Amino acid sequence: MSILGTRVLRTEDPGFLSRGAIYTEDVQDERLVGACYLHFVRSTVAHAKISGIDTSAAREAEGVIAVYTGSDLAAAGLAPAKPPMPNMNQAMLAPLLAIDVVRFVGEPVAVVVTEEMYQGEDAIELVDVDYDPLPAVVDMNDALSGAKGLLFPEAGTNVVCTFGDAAASNPDLFAGCEVVVSEIIQNRRVAAAPMESRSAAASWGEDGRLTAWIPNQGAQGTKGAIMGLLGLEPEKVRIITPDVGGAFGAKFGADAEHAITCWIAGDLARPTRWSETRMENLLVMPHGRAQQHKITIGGMKDGTVLAYRIEILQDSGAYPKFGAFLPSLTILMTPGPYRIPRAESWSTSVVTNTTPVGAYRGAGRPEAAAAIDRAMDLFADAAGVDPAEVRRKNLLPKFTEPHTTAFGAKYDSGDYVTALEKALDAADYPGLLAEQTRRRAAGDTLQLGIGLSSYVEITGPGGEAGGPNENGTVEVHPDGTATVLTGTSPHGQGHQTVWAMLVSEELGIPIEKITVKWGDTDLIPKGGGTGGSRSLQLGGAAVQQASRELLDVARERAAATLEAAPADLEYDVETSTFSVKGDPDVSVPLTSLAESERLFVRSVFTAPGPTFPFGTHVAVVEVDTDTGKVFFRRIITVDDAGTIMNPLLAEGQRHGGIAQGAAQAFLEEVVYDEDGNPLTATFADYPFLSATEVPSFELVDMETPTSYNPLGAKGIGEAGSIGATPAVQNAVIDAVSHLGVTHIDMPTSSQRVWRAIRAASSSAANGTKEA
Amino acid sequence: MEIKLTVNGVTRSDEVEPRLLLIHYLRESLNLRAANIGCDTTSCGACTVLLDGESVKSCTVLAVQANGRSVTTAEGLVADDGTMSVVQQAFRENHGLQCGFCTPGMVMASTSLLAENPHPSEQQVREGLEGNFCRCTGYHNIVRSVLAAAEKLSGAAPSAGSASTDASEVTA
Question: CB–CB of B99 and A246 under 8 A?
Fold first, then answer.
């Protein structure tokens, strides 16, 4: 029986549960003996000129080995980082430590190195930084207008980059539409907040090479980032990835603090360690989302959508990172799973005096899904057609050959209507509507809301030379064990288990005897890491391919050993043995073919393109109309990611994604005051989702295999976070739509919901309808 | 200051700085690194250990406060032959962990919860773990793990006497 598709328990877990995983902070290595500790002095203001830094008291403090400022690093030849993509304004430079100007609260200004861990926390308090405040540009609309000044006067603008062409907008886009609705909606800034914050440990060997342990999503990408920030040659750098305590997109590459930890280890010729606090994490680790959308949708009164436009404003934070690029992915996914005859979108990314924005679970695609599915409900409401019916009417029909959208996305395969119907069935949609009608008629305080989202997303990008591809190496050892090397980089996804399953399926070696390795750039120089839900469909496919190619190599050796033609041999997976067809006694075990010569294959799997998982989420909430409080009651999801290798783990990915997506809709938000002071810089303030705020999730199975890889697999990591957000938001609005509410921005806090109800009832009382 | 305490059944005596947090004592001094530090406001519970059998967040306990007391960490739940506790096993069997960072704290909080209430309802499990954050699982399989452990520990299905409030009845 095939091991694939079965609920194999994770082989990672016994270690994780009994002694704990080994995160960067836990690494004990002889190269780190005698390590000193780094602590960063961080800006306490959002925008200011630095008029002076006095480090003298800190230098005298107990245990202090050194103090560095931005000018010290500049004097040592460390240059500021340029924005990561050529279309971004290249004058927006990010120094490793602030020089002359600070641009967000939390920006590192100086670093203190101490003998012991606690000494650094004392010493950073002694560094005296004089700030000469500048006006803070906090709202992205102010950044766009320039009304509050520029972050980089040398750039001449706050605009980082644009995507799409606003000038090419069709003035007649909505011609012929009976119903046109427009709304400005906020896709708020959220914190990735993996449970493990950022950290690093570094050591330079006598051979002049740097070894650095950094929690990341791909050691190879992190190596590239460290090389770039420090100006090092590739052969000088080795990155090792310990166990990683969650990442969610925010641990790709390397940040200034990682690079500085590495650099100081060299400068002091002594190993270094750095771990940030949660407050530092919430202040500095790139935030996610942070888009404003102006959406307009038009169509016919029967619910047929004819045209859609989305104008995107992206808050990139203080320094352009991946966040400035996110809208290009949003634009790519503009129409989602819908057949919209005319659609257009464009974006502008701006800098603000806030934490830089980067990738967060879904990265640009949840924003697209949130916009189109909010638009669909606005349209349904205006047209007076049931939201399910509007989706049914406008979803692309089932297709098995690739479908290319007007935005250049090539959807590999899709069956969106089936996903919708399965989700509605499982939710008992008619029953929910009846209960909603009953409560509305009775005027209950606790109203029921039902929200839908039909989504499609893009997964599986990256790799060598742009990809999509990934490498995998499989080696069989004479003792019956096997080793897998992969260019992907798990941080909770379970690659150790699933990659072993893939090898076991081909070779018959039990998964307990298979070791999976990743995240050491000396061992695995190339790899695209884990992100964009790419791992199984590229990295897993590479491991499967390497296993099959290994059998080809082994077959040749077996043929020589058995003095038979390769074609006359058969491989028995049960016993991991080659034998001559029709003569099973003439056989040789796979492992013995590794005795005289190493038996391994490195293979690169290249896909014809990214894949497009899809699904439908139905969320059910209750809203207390007196207080605006939202109670998240049910979520029913169909998430079709093609063929599932291990349902237990795939479900886990969906659960986590659903929780994060839902949390964004009704709970989580990073908030700054008008001066750019963060108001959500601790877990006491940031409303991180807890166990009492979510129900158990109702998952519905659906598997439409892709032809883009032999596994038939698409990405599952981000699906939950894409569908759940608009479903929950739509549910909250639906719960109070009979009171005249048409839109409530995320997160749907009690205050926002209560205000929306009040505004709707007062405008109803005045006999007017809000524009 | 000198402290004397029992950690995972072993009596210890150590000289510690008065301000040393229990979590740092466990991790740095004793090299018991299962418990993690996930925040600085006693919100996340990644550092949860048992102090005299009750769960505490060891980032908010000074090592000196553990003087004369007994501390149990996730490492201490494992039998000498390597067998994990029922709660630990239930987390594995129900895929109650992904990245693993919250896990040791979650296991300790669950152990404490089940000691106090051997037959919790789903809602009681959720409330009992409200102070332990997880970013990976959406709590779904953590709740399943704890309910499964409860069932296994009681040797039968949850007793009829236990409250059976389900999530849909929550009104925080």
Answer: yes
Q: Which two tokens stand for residue A318?
A: 């203080």
Count of structural domains within chain A = 2
Is residue A528 within 8 Å of A470, Cβ to Cβ? yes
- Tell me the per-residue pLDDT of B113-171, one tens digit each, with 9 for 90 and over: 999 999 999 999 999 999 999 999 999 999 999 999 999 999 854 444 333 333 333 33
Secondary structure (3-state) at A663: helix
Instruction: Give B150 to chain A, closest Cα distance, Å.
Output: 18
B-chain CB neighbours of A278 within 8 Å are 38-41, 44
Residue A750 sits at the chain B interface (C-beta within 8 Å): no
Residue entry with tokens 């750098």: A237
A638 near A419, Cβ under 8 Å? yes
Q: pLDDT at position A764, please?
A: 78
Q: Is the minimum CB–CB distance between A22 and chain B shorter than 8 Å?
A: yes
Q: CB under 8 Å to A643, separation ≥6 — which residues?
A: A5, A703, A705, A711, A712, A713
Residue A173 covered by a domain: no
Q: Which residues of B touch A13 (CB under 8 A)?
A: 91-92, 97, 100
Chain B residues whose beta carbon lies within 8 Å of the beta carbon of residue A691: 125-127, 129-130, 132, 134, 139, 142-143
**CATH number, residue A592:** 3.30.365.10
Same domain, B127 and B106: yes
Q: Do A331 and A394 fall within a single domain?
A: yes
The pTM of the whole model exceeds 0.90: yes
ipTM of the complex: 0.97
Nearest to B139 among A23, A494, A691 (CB): A691
The verdict on a CB contact (< 8 Å) between B95 and A10 is: yes
A478 in a structural domain: yes
Let me know if residue A85 belongs to a domain: no
> Which residues on B lie below 8 Å from A660 (Cβ)?
135, 138
Chain B CB within 8 Å of residue A659 CB:
yes
Q: Domain count of chain B?
A: 2
Q: Is B138–A697 a contact, with Cβ atoms under 8 angstroms apart?
A: yes
Half-sphere exposure of residue A754, counting CA atoms within 13 Å on the CB side?
8
CA distances (Å), A614 to each of A23, A652, A723, in order?
34, 17, 9
- Which uninterrupted H or E stretch holds A452? strand A446-456
For A:704-743, CB contacts with B below 8 A are 720
Cα–Cα distance for residue pair A370/A185, rounded to 1 Å: 9
CB contacts of B39 in chain A (<8 Å) are 278, 682-683
pLDDT per 10-residue tile (average), chain A, 771 residues: 96 97 98 98 98 98 98 97 96 97 98 97 98 98 97 98 96 98 98 98 98 98 98 98 98 98 98 98 98 98 98 98 97 97 97 98 97 98 98 97 94 97 98 98 98 97 86 98 98 98 98 98 97 97 98 98 96 97 94 97 97 98 98 98 98 98 98 98 97 98 97 96 98 98 98 97 70 41
Q: What is the pLDDT of residue B155?
A: 81
Q: Which residues span the domain enclosing B56? A: 2-76
Check CB contact under 8 Å for B99 and A655.
no
Phi, psi torsion values for A639, nearest 5 degrees: -125, 105
CA A425 to chain centre: 30
* Contact at CB, B38 and A196, closer than 8 angstroms: yes
Peptide bond just before A327 cis, omega within 30 deg: no
